[in-house]
Specification:
The protein contains eleven helices and 15 strands. By secondary structure, it is of the alpha+beta class. Helix 2 (22-36) packs antiparallel against helix 4 (46-60). It is flat and about 105 Å long.
Length: 383
Amino acid sequence: MATARNKEDYYKVLGVSKNSSQDEIKRAFRALAKQKHPDITKNPADGEEFKKISEAYEVLSDPEKRKMYDNFGHDGLNAGGHSGFSGFSSSGFTDLGDLFGDLFGDLFGANRKHHQGQTRNNRNAPGPDYLKNIVISLSDAVLVKKQTININVEVPCDDCKHTGAKTPQDNSVCKQCHGKGVQVHTGNSIFGGSFRQEVVCSNCQGLGKIILDKCLKCKGNGYYLDNQKLEFNLPPLIQTGDSLRIKGKGGFNKLNGAQGDLLIRITVQADQYFTRRGTDLLIDIPVSYLDALLGNTIAIPTIEGNLIKQQLKPGTQDGAQVVIYQHGSYYGKNNRGKLIATIKIQMPTKISKADREKLWSINNENNFTPNDEFIKKFNKNQK
């Protein structure tokens, strides 16, 4: 047996640094365990190597032992009553299945991980949650409109009272697990200890019974698919990627647990005209240069499809904003953000000779020459 003086550094054994977190130490151990467990590699020589890895992990995974080891090394562990590897009995691993179940599922029962929620202690766990993706319009999101979808929902079979059997006499107690739904596996570990693990019965899949003659309506499942129309309300300010949960519309649980939930994942479709920013809605409004110059009345659409009349100030500039309150997104029962309309001044690409003459007349009478003023300032600053 290796003495305290010639034992390898535990951190080096696991290939981690002294500053590694508990998660990093755990990941390193699991990676090495997959490589060196003799029952996986089928190499008996790996037994000692695996024992060394496990001993290092037993110490470094325990905060008190790790502190003692960091301060005093292997001698400190011996002085503190730690006399070597103990088969995990002192490090909190009371069941090898708990430690290695996700690494070595085939070693301790192939179905353990898949059915870990169906052991005796979790037979009443809810059924699986289902996911449905839907696309809604920006208008529906902004106005918090009620949604309606059609979906196939698993419902308990009323013909067999969700047992799956044609008659009550067609339910037979499983002879392999004696109606318990689980089996106990025991064995000896390579360290001389033993392990005990409960796994789902492979014969009845955890039901504790065997169906001799299946129900015609649900074909032995205990449930059937029913096409239902579901209505639900959108919450205010819902965004793409948000999910809504509808209770009891998910997967059916054969072990008599509650039915799972339906998760509805939302995608908000981009709108051709409106953009959402927080609680506000933004829209660009094209207007004639004459409307902006003269201060004419323009129409601004709302996301409901209505039109709001708005008079511009004479000489309105391109990029100016018109703010209309209580026409943005709902964020409370009666509270809404703003509708912000940005003015985009449009110029004609063609103009008649008569109109040009009128404009020349106005131009000659008007002393509005911004370009000339700009050039004067530019030239002055260049000198």
